[in-house]
Amino acid sequence: MASRIVVCSLILATFLFCNLSKAFPFGPGGAGYSGLFPEFYQFSCPQANEIVMSVLEEAIAQDPRMAASLLRLHFHDCFVQGCDASVLLDDGATIQSEKNAGPNKNSIRGFEVIDKIKAKLERVCPHTVSCADILALAARDSTVLSGGPHWEVPLGRRDSKTASLSKSNTEIPAPNSTIQNLITFFQRKGLDEEDLVALSGGHTIGVARCVTFRQRLYNQNGNNQPDVTLEKSYYNGLKSVCPNTGGDNNISPLDIASPLRFDNTYYKLILFGKGLLTSDEVLLTGKVARTMELVKNYAVDEALFFHQFAESMIKMGNINPLTGSNGEIRKNCRRIN
To answer: Is 178 helix (H, G, I), strand (E, B) or coil?
Structure first.
């Protein structure tokens, strides 16, 4: 009897493995999932997706900007050490927090929402769902709640026991990046020009601080002149928000037409010289044929943009995840266990 049970178990395991392999055909280091798959919590915490969404619905209803903030948090996490929730760690005995890095300080937000999701998950499924997976799910759900595409999030990431302040200062692309800088930064993470243009479309929601676009208004090329690619009326409006000195934290929508709705307006605005950041406008003006073509394609075909955004988010979420026995499942996302 025991031998029959063993044989049946082996057959079931083989069946599950084969079917998962068909659904997620990429192994470690491939262009896919590195051992991650959407059903990871199917038995250990089947309510995980529902819990994340329930907290986000409330948080975004109270503060619609939070959707963009949580999307950005996932991006800033994945570009430093991989998608390992290192960005969530506070300063500690062995941790220099990434929150204090130039691209993050007084800028990234949403930590309290992640804390709330984690606390709710810990009550229902203790020590099961990683903070890194929470970030990935929160980015997807924030997109959906803003009117954007849905995708199945591959899961199974574990949380890092380290952070890197230095990498946060050097590996997150700056808002005044040239097109070649952007392409290089993304290539280092295994992302191509299609991923660059599609993921930049995340700027269809959210805001940016004056300090990130002041250079375009007053001294784009070190000659005390504005960026000539800025549309005139848009330029004048930005000057009223962002003076030459002071007002660093004054904000302007990245997509002035529909700042709370996830759509393809971002690309249409770029075509009219109304991309807010240098890193937005250079997708068109940087004279790289592929990125120019993609901006134009996404501007006329929202479904195409949505499809590629989902694909690129899955790809970005697969940057060097910790899996198996690597890392840990943090009880509190702000500190190691």
So the answer is: coil
pLDDT tens by residue, 203-259: 999 999 999 999 999 999 889 999 999 999 999 999 999 999 999 999 999 999 999
Quick: pLDDT tens for 189-212: 999 999 999 999 999 999 999 999
End-to-end distance of the chain based on CA atoms, in angstroms? 43
DSSP 173: P
Which structure tokens are listed for 320? Answer: 């060097």
CA 264 vs CA 204, 252, 336: distances in Å: 7, 18, 39
**Per the annotation, where are the binding residues?**
77, 80, 82, 84, 86, 98, 173, 203-204, 255, 263
C-beta separation of 49 from 150 below 8 A: no
Residue located via tokens 């229902």? 124
| CA count, 13 A, side-chain hemisphere, 141 | 24
Instruction: Give CA–CA dist 86/317, Å, rounded.
Output: 14
Question: Encoding tokens for residue 71?
Answer: 């999307």
Which residues are within 8 A (CB) of 332 and not within 5 positions of it... i.e. 6 or more apart? 115, 118
Q: Other CB atoms closer than 10 Å to residue 264's CB: what's the count? A: 22
Active site residues: 76
Q: Which helix (H) or strand (E) holds 208?
A: strand 207-209
Q: Are 249 and 210 in contact, with CB atoms under 8 Å apart? A: yes
- 77 DSSP 8-state letter: H
The structure's pTM equals 0.89
For 202, how many CA atoms within 13 A lie in the half-sphere containing its CB? 26
Binding residue numbers for Ca(2+): 77, 80, 82, 84, 86, 98, 204, 255, 263
- Return binding residues for heme b: 203
Q: How many residues does the chain have?
A: 337
